[in-house]
TrEMBL record:
Assigned EC number: 1.1.1.3
Pathway connected to this protein: Amino-acid biosynthesis; L-methionine biosynthesis via de novo pathway; L-homoserine from L-aspartate: step 3/3; Amino-acid biosynthesis; L-threonine biosynthesis; L-threonine from L-aspartate: step 3/5
Active site (UniProt): 205
Alphabetized SUPFAM superfamilies for the sequence: ACT-like, Glyceraldehyde-3-phosphate dehydrogenase-like, C-terminal domain, NAD(P)-binding Rossmann-fold domains
Residue intervals of the ACT domain: 350-425
Protein name (database record): Homoserine dehydrogenase
Organism: Candidatus Cohnella colombiensis
Leader sequence segment: none
Residues that, per the record, bind L-homoserine: 190
Known cofactor(s): a metal cation
Catalytic activity: L-homoserine + NADP(+) = L-aspartate 4-semialdehyde + NADPH + H(+)
Length: 428
């Protein structure tokens, strides 16, 4: 087999890592696929920009079509990001019979079914392992490793930037804005970090994971997402005192034909393995009906971990090329599922209230919970932080999301409650 030629779209954080691995691991790669793998052309926005890697300038182009329509190129590796042009370029690459490897979760969460359908029609591979949880091979694990099981729950810390921020806030008392800036400098955050901190990046990844895990069609709009911008140092410190860590968790659950997928800051019991996943690390906890509990852990973002997954996908494509079996991935979305309603989504909750500090207030609070059939697991009144009222921390037993919303509505009307400071889902 002649050497396999890659057209690399993007030479930023991930693209640079791809070049380093393809060049640095050449012998290992060649031993696995019995052919050499070569990066033939590279797309960038600005050819004159200074790069932190030595690149033959003749390989750089600003014209995606020069790469995609080059008959010598076998595999397109898309690590430029975005949705509009990336989609157009990938569809054209497939039209030209080229295989595609991408790290683009935005694109796969929104247009994955269309791209995968086109790939099958054209007999091409589209692999996207790096799109979720950077260096953790979770996509292949869900498709192949759990093919014999029925997955009931997937819980993931799937955004490295927010886990990095929450960890630094928890362990060092660092300020949110300072740590976000650090995460950007380290290449973890998206070009616009709003999608990281507001939970959209994690929602996109959970769309991909739940579709694969439940073998069902899950749309991004089915995933409710809340980010970490409202998480306070006070919440984090109270959580720790009670034996919890605050984590941005993606939670996907399936019961028969009902599913729910959400992303929210969650208080996780410190004894749960996912609570000790810190820094830029990601983890995906998978509970299968037969296998029970499993968890996968590794770096979720950054140049080399992400590039490892990208190049592993390239190796998978080349192995398929050798066997002549590209484009033969089975259709995995065969289960027909419905979204759970808020009455059907159950969990425990943490609530921090600022209330009037006088006789009878606790009884009024308890009456609201009782009248709405929400059972309280524990109540704590930390020593008064100021003279204007008291803080109350309540942890409920498992209740429906709808019942908890009714409790919040009642507290908003109750004069004794001065402020609902925070409400968190509780796991573990
Ligand atoms: P990045 O550092 O911003 O790099 C993007 C690269 O693409 C740059 O080289 C840029 O060219 C080029 N580019 C962007 N738009 C272009 C256009 N319209 N035409 C030509 N070139 C264009 O991005 P990244 O962090 O490497 O992320 C790339 C992809 O991987 C994204 O989809 C991201 O979500 C995903 N991802 C990233 C990570 C991570 O840790 N960073 C992890 C997993 C997945 P210039 O260099 O000339 O500006
Ligand atoms: N911005 C993403 C993160 C990159 O922080 O997890 C990896 O997808």
């Amino acid at each position: 087999m002649k050497s396999v030629k890659i057209g690399l779209l993007g030479l930023g954080t991930v693209g640079t890592g791809v070049v380093r691995i393809v060049e640095g691991h050449q012998e290992d790669l060649a031993n696995q696929v019995a052919t050499s793998i070569e990066i033939a052309k590279i797309l960038v926005k600005d050819r004159t920009k200074a790069r932190n890697i030595a690149i033959d300038a003749a390989k750089l182009t600003e014209d995606p079509w020069e790469i995609v329509r080059d008959p010598n190129i076998d595999i397109i590796v898309e690590v430029m990001g975005g949705i509009g042009q990336s989609k157009e370029v990938i569809l054209e690459a497939l039209e030209q019979g080229k295989h595609v490897v991408t790290a683009n979760k935005d694109l796969m969460a929104l247009h994955g079914p269309e791209i995968l359908t086109k790939a099958r029609e054209k007999g091409c591979d589209v692999f996207y392992e790096a799109s979720v949880a950077g260096g953790i091979p979770i996509i292949r694990t869900l498709i192949e490793g759990f093919s014999s099981d029925r997955i009931k729950k997937i819980m993931g810390i799937v955004n490295g930037t927010t886990n990095y921020i929450l960890t630094k806030m928890s362990q060092e008392g660092a300020a949110y804005a300072d740590v976000l800036k650090e995460a950007q400098e380290l290449g973890y955050a998206e070009a616009d970090p709003t999608s990281d901190v507001e939970g959209l990046d994690a929602a996109r990844k959970m769309t991909i994971l739940s579709s694969l895990g439940f073998r069902s069609k899950v749309d991004l709009e089915d995933v409710t997402a809340k980010g970490i911008s409202a998480v306070t140092q006070e919440d984090i410190q109270y959580a720790k005192k009670l034996g919890y860590e605050v984590k941005l968790l993606g939670i996907a659950e399936r019961q028969d034909d009902l599913i729910s997928v959400s992303v929210q800051p969650t208080m996780v019991k410190q004894s749960h393995p996912i609570a000790s996943v810190n820094g830029v690390f990601n983890a995906v906890y998978v509970h299968g009906e037969a296998v029970g509990e499993t968890m996968f852990y590794g770096a979720g973002a950054g140049e080399m971990p992400t590039a490892t997954s990208v190049v592993a996908d390239v190796v998978a494509v080349v192995k398929n090329m050798k066997l002549g079996v590209n484009g033969r991935q089975a259709h995995v979305s065969y289960n027909v599922t419905k979204q759970k309603t808020d009455e059907q989504i159950a969990s425990k909750y943490f609530m921090l209230l600022h209330v009037e500090d006088r006789a009878g207030v606790l009884a009024q609070i308890a009456q609201v919970f009782s009248s709405l059939d929400v059972s309280i697991e524990s109540v704590m009144q930390p020593s008064a932080p100021n003279r204007s009222g008291a803080e109350l921390i309540i942890i409920t037993h498992s209740t429906s999301k709808a019942a908890m919303n009714r409790v919040i509505d009642e507290f908003e009307k109750l004069a004794a409650v001065q402020k609902i400071k925070s409400v968190y889902r509780v796991e573990g």
